[in-house]
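Researcher: Checking consistency across runs. Here is DNA topology modulation FlaR protein again:
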Amino acid sequence: MMDHKVELPPRQQLTDLKKAAEHIRAARRILVIGCSGGGKSTLSLKIAKRFGLSYISVDRDVYWLPGWVTRDRVEQRKIIASRILEQRWIMDGTNPSSLDIRLPRTDFVVWVRMPRRLCISGAISRWAKWIGRTRPEMAPGCIEKIDLEFLRFIWTFEEKFAPRLVAGIAAHGPEVPVLQLKSRRQMRELLDLLGPPD
């Protein structure tokens, strides 16, 4: 199984990082998606700080309740439907099942689409850093953990979830430009182009 085999239509992909940075500067609402461990939250928090956007973590604010209990799906959609009405935000979270309500309110999508080995490494490093604690972008009472099920989720993400993301973007945000970041170098270059917080 190869990484990155399902792609968006070329007309929707934005590959020029300078143009992507211009889009981000002008955007009022940005959606950041991708596999766990790829760096979505780190990137989202930096962009939020740089441009004074409200940071919404789907994991923390929508999906999880304390103790790794999943919130009821109807309630999840109510929360998302309320939060997307805000004027300026960056939303960190993949969840293909809610793209139908998130994408129509989104100006720009950043897909952090790192190779799976890098995502595995990122998830393990994050666990080691936060072991025994809850990281800020996670719901209270969700102590950082890692197990085989989670590692399998990461390893098969491209095969199982990328097609759903591509289909969701095509169906619910066909005019929304999408930047795919496929390396740490690209991510660093984008952040350099965006500059430090004011």
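Researcher: Does this match what you'd expect to see?
Model: One thing to look at in this run: The chain has ten helices and eight strands.
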